[in-house]
UniProtKB/TrEMBL annotation:
Taxonomic source organism: Oceanidesulfovibrio indonesiensis
PANTHER family on file: BILIVERDIN REDUCTASE A
A molecular function GO annotation: nucleotide binding
Superkingdom of source: Bacteria
Protein name: Gfo/Idh/MocA family oxidoreductase
Every GFO/IDH/MocA-like oxidoreductase domain range: 160-230
Annotated Gfo/Idh/MocA-like oxidoreductase N-terminal domain residues: 6-122
InterPro entries for the chain: Gfo/Idh/MocA-like_OxRdtase_N, Gfo/Idh/MocA_Oxidoreductases, GFO_IDH_MocA-like_dom, NAD(P)-bd_dom_sf
Pfam families linked: GFO_IDH_MocA (PF01408), GFO_IDH_MocA_C3 (PF22725)
Amino acid sequence: MDARPLKIGILGLGNMGKNHLRILSLLRSVDIQYVYDTNPECLRAMAAQYGVLAVDEVPLDFGGVEALFVLTPTSTHMEYVERAMGTVPYIFVEKPLTGHVDDTRTIVERIRAGGTFVQVGFIERFNPAVQVLKSLNCDEHGIINIDFTRTSKMSSRISDVGVVTDLMIHDIDLAIYLNGPVETIVAHGAASNGFVDFASAMLVHSTGALSRLLASRITEKKRRLIEVTCMDKFVSCDLLRKEVFINMQSVSSKRKTNYVVASAEETVLVSQQEALLNEITSFIAACNENDFTGVPTANDDLTVMEIADEIQQQIMRGQ
């Protein structure tokens, strides 16, 4: 027998909010109690399109929902999460949890004390290409280095955070997810109007492996790449195309030959399923089963934000 649908509320109908609503409206595992946005025209239009209740104000007790989706601007996350704690048992909040590491520390301490579960929207963990990459167990083959590249042109819809907090935090999370805890950070970059627009960082992990991260929002070409160098193979991953290629060493470097052997490339089949669908269904399953293993939590967000803060500070000191 199927579980009773989870009663949910949705706050925020911007770009990400609309996409969440699109997917949530198709799932029988949830019952959308209401949607809210500060833009009344957008609110009415989206509510009418998906046949859900629009509310002009966030209900005082959040309408008795079991799970809340906080998809509003970053600057409002802390207010809504703090209000919901103790009333709503499960909260999904778009990344980052807050825009400042000190605020993140404060709210994470309260989350730990209050017992509310909070999942943070590090959506790239749910990209089918990343899931395939994780399943390859590259760490068992001696990871030397992972390169992460994430570039875009400036977006008018993101105005309250820099490129490290907007884009690079996805790859900081993935670097830890794939390479383990971080011990050393070295960063360089460029900033304008008080915000970092271009960032390059090297992370040294406790395993001795490296992660090199590049994020830019002043680059016209949109790229989302991960390249893993192991002792015996090289794995390239395109997150936009959802493609994974493996280049294996055909001849051991220890073997002496008088000829050159090209590496053998293998193409790995990757599901084209939408990452956001994977992310949302993982959150719903975690709520229903009360098991949050493997999903990005508020604690994970704090770890990422502390690293992001150090990267930003190093870049700003260099300006």
